Amino acid sequence: MSERFCYRCGISESEGGPLIDGLCQVCYRKENPVLLIDGEINTELCQNCGSYKKRGVWVDPSTYELEELIFEVADNALLEELGDSLDERVENFEVVSVEELEEINDLPVGAAVVAFQPVDWHIEHFPAIIIYEVRVKARLHELQHELHDETRHVTVYVRQTVCPRCQKFLGGYFEAILQVRAEGRPLAEDERKAIGKLVEEKVDEIMRRDRMGFIQDTIEKEEGLDFYMGSTSSARKLAQAIKERFGGTISEAYELVGVDRQTSKEVHRASVSIRIPKFRKGDIVEDRRGNVYTVEGVDGKGMTLTNLVTRETERRDWKTVKREGIDSVESEKREAMVTSITPTEVQLMDMETYETYELERPGIELREGEIYHMVEVKGRRYFLRKKE
To answer: What is the pLDDT along the chain (388 residues), one digit of tens a residue?
Structure first.
């Protein structure tokens, strides 16, 4: 059998190794480069929020320390470019450290390993410039004796811009209004603070998945709170979070605000309303059977009540509250001193009028001379608690 020669350099097969597509080992690697990346890459960083594009989608950074952020953005741009800049015969590649790549001398056909490191940078002003050394090892053909081993220097330019979310935010954009109200009464100050804190916590959580979930503005009104939201879905999620904590009902309404110039479709703005229950801790309520309770607590699932006759603490979910007709009842709260106690009755003196009266002895521990908070409902007096 006659000797074969590399058609590019003329070396014999016995000297240059098995020919691949008519080329010796060295010429095959030269004629079939693996690393096809451009020498320059441009990428952008939002100067307002630090976000950047990752696979075509704006994402929030893992750090807000400027130097680390610039390298994060540049690393990401380089990695994305690498994914599209390897020879099509590379079926899969892995990014490894420079030290790990140095030790690799064999790979399956169609596999590559990539390592990169910054070798020079200028990040004192924008555009920030980072120069990377990129090295790739790969095997494209089963007859290769040595792996492709290629090195290139790539310059990444990180430029400042304003992301679409920040453009909308800075322009005063909002898609929905979340209205927080209480049924039949204004929101109390402590409720406003608790709701504000809950909303602040939940917005941070929501914005990890919905970049438009920002609060454009918060308006305090006499009757409640209005949150101007960047997206309707975020307003719905906040309304649900408030309902789970405080209870209540959610409703939505829509208002036509214009027409989209690009699609010619009508643009509507949503009003998402969460109305929390009118009941609060300390309220006096009555069911349709005439049982009187003090409200011990209210949450998203229902109320905790204390029966003012039996002194038993009872739990009612919101469906049961509605079914039993539990509602606020007109009451007057007073203070009274226990003046005497018998096995069946208690004598008290009203601390304002000095009137004395008797009540059936309740199922709580009482002592003569102690003052108690009382409540009168429909002419009947009940013990609430001892005055501290």
So the answer is: 578 899 999 999 888 889 999 999 999 999 999 999 999 999 999 998 899 999 889 998 988 899 999 999 999 999 999 988 999 999 999 999 999 999 999 999 999 999 999 999 999 999 999 999 999 999 999 999 999 999 999 999 999 999 988 988 888 888 899 999 999 899 999 999 999 999 999 998 898 888 888 999 999 999 999 999 999 999 999 999 999 999 889 999 988 767 666 666 766 789 999 999 999 999 999 999 999 999 999 988 899 999 999 999 999 999 999 999 999 999 999 999 999 999 999 999 999 999 999 999 988 889 999 999 999 999 999 999 888 7
Element (H, E) at 166: helix 164-170
User: 123 — phi, psi (to 5°)?
Assistant: -125, 20
Q: Are 276 and 246 in contact (CB under 8 A)?
A: yes
215 in Cβ contact with 199 (< 8 Å):
yes
d(CA 300, CA 245) in angstroms, rounded, equals: 5
The phi, psi pair for 238, rounded to 5°, reads: -65, -40
Token duo for residue 268: 């509507």
DSSP 333: E
Could you tell me where the beta strands, DSSP code E, fall in 193-344? 215-220, 224-229, 249-259, 266-276, 284-286, 292-298, 302-307, 313-317, 327-328, 332-341
CB 12 within 8 A of CB 4: yes
Torsion angle of C-alpha atoms 14, 20, 22, 24, degrees rounded to 10:
-50
The tokens describing 62, both together, are: 């893992």
Any idea what the Cα angle at residue 245 is, between residues 240 and 247, rounded to 5°?
Answer: 75
| CA gap 130, 196 in Å, rounded | 43
- Name residue, tokens 């509602």: 327
C-beta separation of 34 from 136 below 8 A:
yes
- Taking the complete model, does pTM exceed 0.85, yes or no? no
